[in-house]
Fold:
Amino acid sequence: MWLSWRRSQLDMFAPYLGENNFSYSSVVKAKKNVERIAVIVILYYNGFTQTFGKFQDSYSKLEHIHDQIYQLREKHVSSQDPKAKELLRQSEEASGDFAKIRSRFIIEIRDLSKTMF
Structure:
């Protein structure tokens, strides 16, 4: 029964486990680690689901922007190109957002560890 409940939990949160369709391999490796964290959070730390969802959304947005920048670089598009400039601006903004959300997630995990022992 416990196992079937956990499976239903994973099915319910399947959208957290996205596809790896990026242009460069380092993001695929990082995304796999985020997916591993998602499984742990979903199965064992339900209280972190909302915070982790924000973390994952922020991470995905940042990686999507970085993938677009990578694709432009592969095409040898100048950094002065309007689209490249806009993506770099978005990257800076998304990086700041991700840093804030990541910090909040880490603080919550650290606080949890204090109550566990």
Summary: The chain has four helices and no strands. Confidence is low (pLDDT under 50) at residues 1-20. The chain has one domain: 2-116.
